[in-house]
Amino acid sequence: MSPKKNNRRTFLKNSVTGTAMIAMGVQGMGFLLESFTTSEKIKTHSFNTGFDQQPLPYAYDALENVIDATTMEIHYSKHAAAYSKNLKDAASAEKIDSNSTLEKLFPEISKYSMKLRNNGGGHYNHEMFWQCMRPKINDNKPEGNLMKLIEKDFGSFTDFKKQFADAGKNRFGSGWAWLCKDQSGSLKIGSTSNQDNPLMNIPSNEINGFPILCLDVWEHAYYLKYQNKRADYIENWWNVVNWEYVQKRYIAV
Ligand code: MN3
Prior knowledge:
The two termini are 27 Å apart. The chain has helices at 3-24, 30-33, 38-41, 69-93, 102-105, 114-131, 144-154, 157-170, 223-226, 230-237, 243-252, and strands at 175-181, 187-193, 210-216. It has two domains: 1-43; 69-252, minor pseudopilin epsh fold (3-Layer(bab) Sandwich), CATH 3.55.40.20. It is mainly alpha-helical. The structure holds manganese (III) ion. Residues 75, 79, 126, 216, 218, 220-221 line the site of manganese (III) ion. Manganese (III) ion (MN3) binds at residues 75, 79, 126, 216, 218, 220-221.
């Protein structure tokens, strides 16, 4: 068995254990969380994602000069809203508890329909994507421990940005670029196609782990302002990354 396959199996096995722990309830289980691996903690962290859209954390025009207001409005109120609605339809048809979370479903998503996979991913990825951004800040970059981790795993912040941007640029067709935390706490970069994400148990996934930063590289995310120039969109996007949020996600798992 290849190391990659082995990692995936370990990830899935641990995810199932984590689900069982959730069923027991999180209250008063702090002493047990200490021994959790990353994927097990995913089930208990504070970023659990339900099926409804949360309010956009800023106005449609808050990211202007990087992402225009019209793109934001269509993206949030049409594209992302449709994923949420279709996810709820699929969950209802497949008799999934409406109080369940996507973090519980993704490690076993392959046993459900493509409608649930596409719309579950579409909803989760966008809910995370909105939080990963904030109004533009000059000289925007991570601080403290997160910057140290990035420098340890990628050499420098510049090298990290290049590798992440390449993941987005080289994703053929529609998909997402990701920065993930793996079970050892290391950072990894990869991309997924369509609305798949690194929490899903999909054999074709090139990256598994807990996502802490994501970038939508579907054309609907940038075409009005950037047309075919995906690289320019990514280059500009660094100015609006919410590094505090990324760090919170890293700490949560
Ligand atoms: Mn999108």
